[in-house]
Write a structure and sequence with these properties.
Layout lengths: L1 H8 L5 H21 L7 H5 L3 E3 L26 E7 L8 E3 L1 E5 L2 E2 L5 E7 L10 H5 L2 E4 L12 E7 L1 H6 L8 E7 L4 H15 L6 E7 L5 H7 L2 E7 L2 E7 L6 H7 L4 E6 L6 E2 L7 H4 L4 E2 L7 E5 H8 L20 E4 L9 E7 L9 E10 L19 H7 L11 E9 L10 E4 L3 E7 L8
Parallel strand pairs: 7-11, 16-17
Antiparallel strand pairs: 1-8, 2-3, 2-17, 4-5, 4-21, 6-7, 6-13, 8-9, 9-10, 11-12, 12-13, 14-15, 16-20, 18-19, 18-22, 19-20
Length: 448
């Protein structure tokens, strides 16, 4: 009878038995959690089945030794392409490449998107109408105002033909995954931190991801997703582009510190911005030079020897120990050129060299790059230095009479194409290509 009562009333366990039972359960669960962690899927987990992430990172980067003396010129050897970088979302982290297509608007996938804020017209004149007072305008944003954009990572996923064949699928769609740090308060933040470390390693921090299509959406997709065509101002230009703000989580606006409404605009390939000023004319280039969301010209070139020469004149401190070339947002980075020799170039030809390519690619060297304060932001951390390198740029590199109060570093390029290509203008550029200077001359910057 006592045994029956015990069976009905439950187990009579003492403290040691409870401890032993708990340890037995943990011994079973811990290996399961380690092997199969209870974490949600990342967007890349789905794409990796059919796509491959573009770019080179870490030890494979061609910039890991950018501060080395090996970039100084060698007698009898031409300058060469050390690295290529694209920035699919303006002012966010770049993607380093070993080769890229060149289009009239610049490197493929470069500056397709920009973030923008909806600004009110205040302050306005006292006699302004109510309509003028209430009118809001979209304006692009950069690290100049919001330094944390430097911490927004952009991954480019391209369709992989071999993977697609294994899945018996066909696709030409490419995607961007935009990632930014975000940790909730309280237990949710603790859980997201643990999840991030289980997914991506001990140093990982929680993030929020945004998935965007690279290709310009069709009319049906625009309507289905609620995207809208709106005017957005970039510098002194106002263009019509596709606002895809519905894809943005509220947390991104808060992370960046944007008090206004935040949008993300996709450049319309049928409404690219025309480039004039120092660029070759339509007659000279054989087509009208254009660009997307770049500041002014299709491409930006820098040389590591010029970077090192300038860096040697910039005072260093605990917040600025090295001057990374990526602070200056170049597309083409050269090695083996005399410091500042690029400022005399007017037309250059990239030849195959050790790149494995067979084509030449030609560029008009349009003007110097006039610098603003954006390089004060550390591209690795998003922390803004209070004065450098802007102070040294203005003191040491005010070398262009067209911009007498600004420092200059780097050159702006416009692609030139063989006229036999007709409207199918494209070329290739790759790491290892060598540079032949075909024309030299003076440069005078023309303001917008």
């Amino acid at each position: 009878m006592d045994e029956l009562l015990m069976a009905r009333g439950g187990l009579d366990l003492d403290a040691s038995a409870i401890f032993l039972l708990t340890m037995t359960i943990l011994a079973f669960l811990i290996p399961v959690v380690v092997i199969l962690p209870p974490v949600g899927l990342q967007k890349a987990d789905a794409l990796i089945q059919t796509h491959t992430k573009a770019g080179v990172e870490g030890v494979k980067s061609n910039l890991k030794k950018q501060f080395s003396a090996k970039h100084t010129p060698v007698a009898g050897e031409p300058p060469r392409v050390q690295s290529l970088v694209i920035y699919p979302v303006k002012s966010c982290k770049g993607i380093e490449l070993v080769r890229s297509k060149v289009f009239p608007s610049g490197l493929q996938f470069d500056r397709l998107f920009t973030f923008a804020q909806l600004k009110s017209p205040f302050p306005v004149a006292v006699d302004s109408t109510d309509e003028e007072k209430s009118k809001h305008k979209w304006e692009f944003i950069t690290q100049r105002q919001f330094a944390r954009l430097a911490n927004v990572t952009v991954d480019l996923w391209l369709p992989d033909e071999m993977k697609l064949r294994k899945q018996s699928m066909k696709s030409t769609e490419a995607f961007l995954i935009i990632r930014f740090p975000w940790k909730e308060d309280g237990w949710r933040g603790v859980f997201s931190t643990i999840t991030a470390k289980l997914q991506r390693g001990r140093s990982a921090e929680p993030e929020i991801e945004i998935l965007l299509p690279v290709d310009f959406p069709s009319e049906a997709e625009i309507k289905e997703n609620g995207y809208t065509f709106e005017n957005v101002k970039i510098w002194k230009e106002t263009i019509n582009a596709l606002n895809m703000e519905k894809e943005l989580p509220e947390e991104l606006r808060r992370y960046l510190g944007v008090s206004n409404k935040l949008g993300i605009f996709r450049i319309d390939p049928d409404q690219l911005r025309e480039v004039h000023r120092c660029a070759p004319s339509k007659e000279e280039a054989g087509y009208q030079p254009v660009t997307g969301f770049q500041d002014a010209y299709p491409l930006h070139l820098m040389t590591l020897n010029s970077m090192q020469e300038f860096s040697s004149e910039v005072p260093k401190d605990d917040n600025l120990k090295e001057l990374d070339v990526l602070r200056f947002r170049p597309n083409i980075i050269l090695s083996g050129s005399e410091a500042y020799d690029e400022e005399t170039w007017k037309q250059i030809r990239f030849k195959p060299g050790s790149s494995g390519l067979y084509n030449d690619t030609v560029f008009h060297v349009s003007c110097r790059t006039v610098r603003c304060k954006m390089p004060n932001v550390d591209s690795a951390t998003g922390i803004r230095h209070p004065s450098e390198p802007d102070k040294s740029l203005r003191a040491k590199r005010a070398v262009d009479e067209g911009a007498p109060l600004n420092g200059c570093l780097g050159m702006q390029l416009t692609p030139l194409f063989d006229t036999s290509l007709g409207e199918d203008r494209e070329a290739w550029i790759a790491v290892g290509m060598t540079v032949v200077v075909e024309e030299r001359g003076d440069h005078l910057y023309i303001k917008q």
